[in-house]
Amino acid sequence: MSWTTTDDLDTFLTAAGGFLRARPAEHTVLLGVTATLAASGPAAYGDRPPRYGWWRDPDGRITGAFLWTAPRPPVLSPMPDRAAAELLDVLAAGPLPVGGVNGARPAADAFTAAWERRTGRAARLRTHLRLYRLDEPAPPDPAPRGSARTATAADRGLLVDWWGAFARESGGGEPDGHDRAVDDRLSYGGLTLWEADGRPASLAGVTRTVGGMARVGPVYTPPALRRNGYAAGATAAVSRGALAAGAEQVLLFADAANRTSTALYERLGYRPVGEHRRYDFPQATPSP
Predict the structure, then answer these.
(1) Which of 20, 207, 232, 283 has the fewest CB atoms within 10 Å of its CB?
(2) What pTM does this model have?
(3) How far apart are CA 49 and CA 102, in angstroms?
(4) DSSP 1-64
């Protein structure tokens, strides 16, 4: 049982791509990120080259994988607890500090527990997300005023602002890089605006379809425009669009503690299928 790591995306996908695509819902984040890296190049998430790896059981089967686009935390697939603990050893031996972890709940919890044992410090739970899959699509009821349209380059300034606002509110995004994310989504029509009274009122995005799976997000409505059903309209529109474009599974993440958003997605036909967590690891303070 051991980890193999690489800085080469093609090597990673040759080795672990079948493992990821065999269970696309469980591996939605890894599939989505690698699809973006394949389309936009290794600098899609920043200047540091991404790192990838896979874990093999004694019989040679791959049963775990990760990717790391530093300074973001490593993203973990579901994996055995032992694999998660040993991954910490692998990453901690490298030149970059391990500042947290993001992934399927059992694996993220096991990785975090190993870090706490190693350092004697307590990690901080940053986000607890519930993963939903579209089951029986249902239109918003009541239907919101307005209609959806695909965002274009002319909307870029607004999209960057709203993406940043979503990241700040959700607590799960990064403080910068929103322009790169928006440009990538615009390149394949992956952002939809809901317009009411001739003006944008809500935003919903969708990832590329990979392994028959697409994931909706982000979904954002400015505070002054909330409680009008605009987010429901935008989410339903991109969900229908993903299905029409050939996605066999449409997923999304929602804050597990936010009953407003989880209830909205359930009314639209989404059903929970998993839990994801992101932890932040406080670094030691140098002695004076």
Answers:
(1) 283
(2) 0.93
(3) 18
(4) -EEEEES-HHHHHHHHHHHHHHSTTTTHHHHHHHHHHHHH-TTTT-SSPPEEEEEE-TTS-EEE
